[in-house]
TrEMBL record, chain B:
The lineage of its organism: Bacteria, Pseudomonadati, Pseudomonadota, Alphaproteobacteria, Rhodobacterales. One of its GO terms (molecular function) is heme transmembrane transporter activity. It holds the Pfam family CcmB. It is found in: Cell inner membrane. Its main location: membrane. It comes from Pseudooceanicola batsensis (strain ATCC BAA-863 / DSM 15984 / KCTC 12145 / HTCC2597) (Oceanicola batsensis). This is Heme exporter protein B. Belongs to the CcmB/CycW/HelB family.
Automatic annotation (TrEMBL), chain C:
GO terms for cellular component: plasma membrane. Keywords: Cell inner membrane, Cell membrane, Cytochrome c-type biogenesis, Membrane, Transmembrane, Transmembrane helix, Transport. It comes from the Bacteria. Pfam families: Cytochrom_C_asm. It comes from Pseudooceanicola batsensis (strain ATCC BAA-863 / DSM 15984 / KCTC 12145 / HTCC2597). InterPro entries: Cyt_c_assembly, Cyt_c_biogenesis_CcmC, Cyt_c_biogenesis_CcsA/CcmC. The keyword Cell membrane applies. Residues 18-184 form the Cytochrome c assembly protein domain. This is Heme exporter protein C. Belongs to the CcmC/CycZ/HelC family. The lineage of its organism: Bacteria, Pseudomonadati, Pseudomonadota, Alphaproteobacteria, Rhodobacterales. It is a multi-pass membrane protein.
Length: 51, 218, 243
């Protein structure tokens, strides 16, 4: 299944690895921050409504 | 406006105003370069124009945060902003004062420091010309950066981060003029482009600085 | 069809964004996965560049997005300065880190590609240098946003910085061109068929570009919603403290 990359295998694989890692990191940070702020907002809104 | 300009120049020249600081910094940078690269004359004379430009640029950067910070802290800036003076004119006057107290001394000092780096004889006039044409742009761009960061405590580092990328065109053309001049090559094209960059920044950036200052003072 | 300005209302924007997000995310993943797998496994090697040509599927889309993100930030900044829609300013803020990451990806894949092809990781080539300068602009922009406490002032100042920065980025591009002739080839994509890359590479590349664009839109929507919520939280907390 793996294509023959020849002598440039390291270059190709590392560039894919680095890029996907960076993209995944960006997505992960964005999602994590989104969840956290959503939770924080919910908490504050509830407190405002009840308090 | 003229009064403001004179006041700024006076404040800068007075002790503690940082007038000599930029020059001393320039001198130290130029002295440190041979320590890092070795005393070989041929190498030094080849890189001299670039080193002098970088030194001038960093020395210019050093005094930028003084342009507005002190006036902002003691409230003078609010007074100036509410005075009938247009804020654009204030920014232009401040930039001019910065240039007179920082850029002009650097231009005068550069040939002297060129001797230390054994700059080729043909390079001196073009080095002075390139700095003379280029440093006003550095002051005007720096004023914009200072206006952006005026409300921020410890904004000095941020100021450098914001301003240095904006210095790229000036540095490229200015160093090119000095380098071409030192190598007896044609200097017209980079010199004209350098002058163009300077003219455009002087014409437009005071408006941006004033706009930014208004936002900061609001 | 509702006017686009309706989305200047944060509530409406959030609702629509939340509805769109899953769709966009799925589409982005599908397009990216298909494009990358197609490109990686099912395209031939270039006769000169060997297998390194596969890097194109990451390098070109990320480079495109690096520039387009800045343009989007410029547009959003102008909208903020002219029409004072908070969502616009927050969208610009949300896009900046995405653009910075895209620039890093373009630079890194470029370096990894350049090593076997040009024999060097880095050359002071105009294109490479302009991208490095663009990255510095992103850094400055993000730093300024995070340094200012008042949200509206920060939005104003960064907008002006974005506009001035655009002018200087363009200027730097030409200055750098003048300063050094480069190793980098011309544009890989153009409407002129003759100059374009061969079709075998072109179709998966288009798919990858579509994937990057979708991913960008999804990320910006998500991050903008995050910024809106964070802002609302701050406002509520401030009101609580006042009471």
């Amino acid at each position: 299944m793996m294509p023959e990359l020849g002598k440039y295998a390291g270059a190709v694989l590392s560039s894919y690895g680095v890029s996907l890692l960076l993209l995944a990191g960006l997505v992960a940070v964005s999602v994590w921050r989104s969840r956290r702020t959503a939770r924080a907002l919910r908490e504050v809104e509830e407190r405002v409504r009840n308090g | 406006m003229i009064a403001l300009f004179i006041r700024d120049v006076r404040l800068a020249v007075r002790a503690g105003g940082g007038f000599g600081l930029g020059l001393a910094f320039f001198l130290i940078v130029v002295v440190l370069v041979p320590f890092a690269l070795g005393p070989e004359t041929a190498l030094l004379s080849r890189i001299a124009p670039g080193v002098l430009w970088i030194g001038a640029l960093l020395a210019c950067l050093l005094s930028l945060d003084r342009i507005f910070a002190l006036d902002f802290e003691d409230g003078t800036l609010d007074l100036i902003a509410t005075s009938p003076l247009p804020l654009e004119g204030v920014c232009a006057a401040k930039a001019l004062a910065h240039w007179v107290t920082t850029g002009l001394p650097l231009v005068v000092a550069a040939p002297v420091l060129g001797v230390l780096l054994s700059l080729p004889a043909a390079g001196y006039p073009w080095l002075v010309v390139s700095l003379l044409v280029g440093t006003p742009a550095l002051s005007v761009i720096g004023t914009f950066g200072a206006a952006l960061t005026v409300g921020i405590k410890r904004g000095g580092l941020l100021l450098s981060l914001l301003v240095l990328p904006l210095y790229v065109p000036t540095l490229i053309f200015g160093a090119e003029v000095a380098r071409a001049g030192a190598g007896d090559l044609a200097v017209e094209t980079p010199l004209v482009l350098l002058a163009a960059v300077t003219c455009v920044t002087i014409a437009l950036l005071p408006f941006a600085s004033a706009a930014v200052l208004r936002m900061n003072l609001r | 069809m509702a006017s686009i300005w309706e989305y200047a209302n944060p509530k409406k924007f959030t609702a629509t964004a939340e509805r769109l997000l899953p769709v966009l995310a799925v589409l982005a993943v599908v397009a990216l996965a298909t494009g990358l797998i197609w490109g990686f496994f099912f395209t031939p090697d270039d006769y000169r560049q060997g297998s390194t040509v596969k890097i194109i599927y990451l390098h070109v889309p990320s480079a495109l997005m690096a520039i387009n993100t800045w343009l989007m930030m410029l547009a959003a900044s102008l909208i903020w300065l002219i029409r004072r829609h908070h969502v616009s300013a927050l969208a610009a803020r949300a896009a900046a880190p995405v653009g910075a990451v895209m620039t890093v990806i373009a630079l890194l894949t470029g370096a990894i590609w350049g090593q076997p092809m040009w024999g060097t990781w880095w050359a002071w080539d105009p294109r490479l240098t302009s991208f490095l300068i663009l990255f510095l602009f992103y850094l400055g922009y993000i730093a300024l946003w995070s340094a200012i406490e008042n949200d509206d002032t920060a939005a104003d100042l960064t907008s002006v910085l974005c506009i001035v920065g655009s002018v200087f980025a363009l200027l730097s591009r030409y200055a750098v061109n003048f300063w050094n002739q480069g190793l980098h080839q011309g544009a890989s994509l153009s409407l002129d068929k003759e100059k374009n890359v061969a079709d075998v590479f072109y179709h998966p590349l288009l798919l990858c570009i579509a994937g990057f664009v979708l991913l960008f839109v999804a990320l910006v929507l998500l991050r903008t919603v995050t910024e809106i919520r964070a802002r609302r939280t701050r406002a509520l907390l401030a009101r609580e403290r006042m009471a």
